[in-house]
């Protein structure tokens, strides 16, 4: 869960963990704290260290942090998930030692068109993402904030899922509008009225939007709500809408997208079947449109 960024000192050059970690360079900061690159001295391994101000004991903020770290640790160790290696606590701070991913995120890769009509690169990236999300679900963890900004992507198209701040271990949720609006399922948006939704189906929906992002560089709508004109047109005629707006995509991909972005949550395709569909695709794009830009 995002936490207010209190003023944190500069930790560059500091040693942590009885001298086993040397904090080398500041990378980024946000509502969560600061992130640095560091060296694990005993193994000469480069890592990332997320630095957080320690919440007050038994506070709501502290409970959120411990819950996030617990769920993240549960799914760590998978090759397509940013893993937690160690958590170091002092009286005032929490330092989370993570995999270092210096090549940026999937959003940046999409913006620079790193997958520009490259079927194998797209397949490689998306299957890895499916593997990561499936591992989470099999471990009883539901991400609920799947989006390109939370997926680290290397120059050689290796991905790692990150940021478990909104994750849950409850498949049935009722906390409403959880995640980023572009990627939230319609039932998640509607749950603000007190209805519940299944987090596993919500994650599948987000994967569908991410696949469209990778393939077209576009978002299909701002919000999966009937108040959004684009989404309203999609609901009225899903197949025709996808075909009319994404003529550059193959019929097989349009069919798969329809199965992921199904308004009825329980009718959405599951990850094993989805992986099989993606792996056996000949191409993501329509042959007649291969020479056109997005």
TrEMBL record:
Name all Protein kinase domain ranges. 21-285
An MF annotation (GO) of this entry: ATP binding
Sorted alphabetically, which Pfam families does this protein's record hold?
Pkinase
PROSITE patterns in UniProt: PROTEIN_KINASE_DOM (PS50011), PROTEIN_KINASE_ST (PS00108)
Q: Which InterPro entries match?
A: Kinase-like_dom_sf, Prot_kinase_dom, Ser/Thr_kinase_AS
- Name of this chain's protein: non-specific serine/threonine protein kinase
Q: Which UniProt keywords apply?
A: ATP-binding, Kinase, Nucleotide-binding, Serine/threonine-protein kinase, Transferase
Q: What is its EC number?
A: 2.7.11.1
Which EC class, in a word? transferase
Out of the domains of life, which is the source? Eukaryota
Q: What reaction gets catalysed by this protein? A: L-threonyl-[protein] + ATP = O-phospho-L-threonyl-[protein] + ADP + H(+); L-seryl-[protein] + ATP = O-phospho-L-seryl-[protein] + ADP + H(+)
